[in-house]
Structure formats: structure tokens, C-alpha cells
Fold:
Amino acid sequence: MNEWDLCTTSDELKEKIWTKNRSFSGDVWFRFRHKLTAVIGLIIIILMIIFSFIAPHFTKFKYDEQNLAFSNIPFRMHVTKINNRYYYLSSNLKIIEVSEDGKLIQSLSLKEENGMKKTMTFTDGTNDIYISYLKKPATFVDNQGKKITAVEKKWNKTFLLGSDFLGRDMLTRLMYGSRISLIVALIATIVNMTIGILYGGISGYKGGLTDSVMMRIVDIISTIPLTLYVILIMVVLNNGFLSIIIALSSVYWVSMARIVRGQIISLKESEFVYAARTIGSSSKTILFKHLLPNAMGPILVTATMLIPSAIFIEAFLGFIGLGIAPPMASLGTMCNDSLQTLRTAPYQLFLPSLLICITMFGFSYVGDGLRDALDPKLKK
Structure:
């Protein structure tokens, strides 16, 4: 065979198309899963759903179960070993006896002495432990006033993420708080998407005077910040789950309506719409079976982006005292409750705030991935 001879090939190979034949949904999924941030966001959302709806069935605490003896106990404790026993001195000068593996056993009583020391007596009455609060923070000292230095760090095995100011389990309350945030955000987004699609679709398809009147109503609503509308509605309504959904669903559809209107206006002069009119299709059929399905890409992206916005607004309402009524847990109400112990127990604010940020990042990453996956201009 000569070095420059052409390679032979069969007719079967000539007809073969060297690419995978994917459907539209398959092509969207292919581009979505090849975007790292979108996959990370999807994993975050799945983990949040498991954490919020499945994990609460495996916890031994209830979201409203209180134990004032174990209030403000962090998830990482500095315990002091005295007479082969371990003790934790809380920020409010409570002495908690801790087992060797980190489980909370009991809260021991204190009695004041000379106004400068507190003396704790064991139940058997044989040993006294002194606490000095002449210096911050308070420390264990012996009867000579010398600081006891046998300090160790132990994980809290009773409350894995610590307890709040009422002795409630932070982990359990985070689970239920995340559930409330996700449910409120999803329901509000579905309602907003439904109203926005109908309102924007009709406005864009009808055009003319109908479109002008409907869009002026949207402009009037948009002149005042939507968050202010929600706060005013929540002030009129009583605090509660249903009130938040009504408040979020009443005004946040305007952005969806504008997106849908723009898509319908750009599509209604297309050839497939003229073809549908030629065969006698009604306006309802053209709008709901031809125009809206072709505009679902931007609609889905906008709906996904509405979810983190709804989560933030729900948390904000809870933070200012207009959210879920206590004792029901909500991430916003947990942030509000933590303000009174911010200096002594900052983890009570940090944990729900971190969960809000993670959830919002997850949905934002998924929305960004959907936007790229549904954009035909980015198809490779």
C-alpha cells in the first residue's frame, strides 16, 4: 500500500452520522449536567429536601420541645475536669454536668457566696466547686481561688448543633425551618407563575388597548417596592403560614407577567401562528398550545429565580416579626430569636443565616444552569 493511497470505506460508514441523536429534553439535560455550578446547585437542593422533609423523622426532639436547664449550650463545649467528672459553665453561669462522651447529664444548682463567688454543691454534699466571675469569662476555681486548668473540648452529643435560649434543639428547628421556607417559596412561586403566565400571555397576545391597560396596572404595582406591599399585607393579615403565601402571591407575579408578555409578542408573528390561524384554531388554542409551550424556557428560568427571592422575603418577614407565628420554627424567626443572645451564642444566628444562603445559592445556580441549557444560541 502506497503512503498516499486513500483509505477505503464501506457504504454503511458513509451513511453513519457521527453524533448522538438527542431529543430537546435530552439536549437540555446534557448541557445542564455539563455545567458544574448547576450540578452543585441541584445537589444542594436535593440535600435540602432530604434535610427538611425526611431527616425530621429521625430526630428525637420536637421543634417546640423546651428544656430551660440546657439553654444556650453550644455544639462545641469547653468542659472542665474536676474530681473525674466533666462540667460545662454556660454563659448565663449554669453548671452542666457532661458525660465523658459529651452527653449532657444534668444542670446543677448554684448558691451565691459573698456576692463575688457562686458555690455549687453536689447532691451528695461532699464537694464544693467555686466559680469566679471577677474576670470575663467566668471560670472554675478551687477553694484557694486558683483557676482550674483541666479544660477539654467536647462535641455536644445531646444537641448536635447546640440549643437555643429556651433549650430547644437547634438541629431540629433548622430542619422544620427549612421545610417552612421551601414550602412557602415553592407554593408562592407556583401561584406567581400561574398568575404571571395568564396575565402576561393574554396581554401580549391581545395587544392594542388591552395590552396597554394591563401593562399600566403592572407599572402602577411596580412603582412601589414589592417588599413594602408584602409588609403592608402582612400587617393587615394575622401572622401565619397562609398569610405569608397570600402576601407573596399577590404582588410577585409582575416580573413573570412581563417576561411572558415579551415572549408572546416576539412569537405571535411567527409562521406557525399564521398556520394555526389558517386552519381555524381559536385564540385560546394558539395561546395555550402553541405560544406558551414555545416560551417555557424563559418562564422556567424566571420561576427558578423567583424561588430564592421568595425564600429571602419569607426569612425577612420572620426576622422583623411578621412571619410564622411561634413556636413554629422558621429560619427568619430563628434569626430574630438569636438577637438576644448574639454576643454570648453567635452560632444561633450563624446557623440559620448559613442555611438561607446555601438554599438561595442552590436555586440560583440551578436557574443559571437552566438559562444556559435552554438557550439554543449556546448549543454546541
Summary: The mean pLDDT is 83.
